[in-house]
Amino acid sequence: MPTARDVANRAGVSQSTVSRVLNNHPHVRPETRKRVLDAIAELDYHPNQAARSLVTQRTGSIGLVVGDIRNPFFAETAKGIVDTSRSYGYRVVLCTTDNQDTLQSEAIKLLRSQEVDGLIFGSVRMDDAEVLALIESGFPCVLYNRVLKTDAGSYVVLDNRKGARMATEHLLKLGHRRIAVLTGSRQFSTFAHRLEGYSEVLREYGIPVDRHLILDHQAYAADRIGTLRRLLGQRRPPTAIFALTDDYALQVLDTLAELDVPVPEGMAVVGFDDIRIAGHSRIGLTTVAQRKDLMGRLAVESLMELITARAEGRTPQPIRLVLEPQLIVRRTCGAQR
Fold first, then answer.
1. Count of CA atoms in the C-beta half-sphere (13 A) of 273
2. How far apart are CA 77 and CA 295, in angstroms?
3. CB atoms within 10 A of CB 112
4. Which keywords does the record carry (predicted)?
5. What is the C-alpha separation between 333 and 331, in angstroms, rounded?
6. Could you tell me where the beta strands, DSSP code E, fall in the chain?
7. In this predicted model, what pLDDT tens digit does every residue of 240-270 receive, in sequence order?
């Protein structure tokens, strides 16, 4: 059976370096960490996890809690989280909640019972008291994509207001003045902040925000055809739809096709997220891009800092990272002909 000394010899490092890698110490050069992890894999070395946990007060696992892993955005960010966690020698336990508070509570209890070293949340509501209490207790938690109303804790998010402003202003510059918006629940910061960005730009252009152009996705999903027919039947129908996620935008494109409304000639469509399929040549969705791989990586790196601080008895400062959006112009907005 291989030993830590065998791993050190194979990687060309000291046993203390192997120990630092196994204990996820932050002060290890990435190339050195990779050599040690490669040696561990080649030798099929299995350190005694129970003994390590007693010494390091770590289990080598973290929890990832998201609303719906079927959503391409969460699937793509989850890959970045899993890949980065693996580079730290951590495994990820995934729980989905269907955006239900009871399922989230069950997930947190399950993960805490498994003694995970920290939690990453992708779908918190702005008024999520349970997550806020967890953060205030000092347990290592990182939020990504969405934040709490109090701005508490550590998080990695996009500048959602700025992204929505970019998309709305792009449509206005193309000549659109009646721009509908398809939004999810404003209990989530993503939708609340994107709606704020959309509304701000309209007002700056002297265009009043028309509540009849703000569509709730839950109602839309229940009656897609009827909702768009009513929208198109307005006395002054919109000429563009800004869907606040790419998943919503793809649903809109499908419905418009069923109604024989050409895109972008009959209706311009813009999304948000830049999921992989958005760039498919047959779709060409204009959208606001998020660096999902970067967001996932930074969420894990931030969590590792919090876990290390807790193990060392330190109280860390919150880590708050806001990423820049990028407008990706493709076919569906009408700018590319």
1. 22
2. 7
3. 13
4. DNA-binding, Transcription, Transcription regulation
5. 6
6. 61-66, 91-96, 119-121, 141-144, 154-158, 179-183, 214-216, 240-243, 268-273, 286-289, 320-323, 326-328
7. 999 999 999 999 999 999 999 999 999 999 9
